[in-house]
């Protein structure tokens, strides 16, 4: 069992930036792919961004392309979601998730992932 913890959420104004972090029980993400998803009130959880280290690729939802960036620290014990130019519609609970690595594609679906964090709230409001 892997325990994921997200942090970095909070209240931000439109146009501002936030950086979310995801850590996995003190272990490295080297053997895992990591995805970020979000769920807004009254809506289904949706894909935001993901990274596949096996093929060296990242993927982003169209709604966040050019504004959000997924990255990791040098030790791969923390994965970040840098969120710039925040919009009101970015308000949601953000979740990180992991799956075993070694696959040839970036995981874009919730069902691609095996372990989930508890989520961190991001509220964009003026």
Q: If you had to describe this structure to a student in words, what would you say it looks like?
A:
There is one protein chain. The chain has strands at 4-7, 10-12, 18-24, 32-39, 46-52, 57-60, 68-72, 78-83, 92-100, 115-116, 120-124. It is 0% helix and 48% strand. Strands 2, 4, 5, 6, 9, 10 and 11 form a seven-stranded mixed beta sheet that branches. With 126 residues, the chain is mainly β. The relative contact order is 0.32. The radius of gyration is 13 Å and the shape is globular. It contains no helices and eleven strands.
Keywords, please?
globular; mainly beta; single chain; 126 residues; seven-stranded mixed sheet; 11 strands; four-stranded antiparallel sheet
The N- to C-terminal Cα distance equals 40 Å
Q: What is the general shape? A: globular
- Average pLDDT over all residues: 94
Helix content: under 10%
Secondary-structure content class: mainly beta
Determine Rg (CA atoms, Å). Answer: 13 Å
Strand content: over 45%
The oligomerization state is single chain
**Number of H/I helices:** 0
Number of strands: 11
State the order of secondary-structure elements, H for helix, E for strand. Answer: EEEEEEEEEEE
- Main β sheet profile: 7 strands, mixed
Uncertain segments: none
């Amino acid at each position: 069992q892997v325990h994921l913890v997200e942090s970095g959420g909070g209240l931000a104004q439109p146009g501002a930036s936030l950086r979310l972090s995801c850590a996995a029980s003190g272990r490295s993400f080297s053997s895992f792919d990591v995805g970020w998803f979000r769920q807004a009130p009254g809506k289904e959880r949706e894909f935001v961004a993901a990274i596949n280290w096996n093929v060296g690729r990242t993927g982003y939802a169209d709604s966040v392309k050019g504004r959000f960036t997924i990255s990791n620290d040098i030790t791969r014990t923390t994965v970040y979601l840098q969120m710039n130019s925040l919009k009101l519609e970015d308000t949601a609970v953000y979740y990180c998730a992991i799956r075993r690595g070694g696959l040839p594609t970036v995981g874009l679906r919730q069902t691609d992932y095996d372990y989930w964090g508890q989520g961190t709230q991001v509220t964009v409001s003026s």
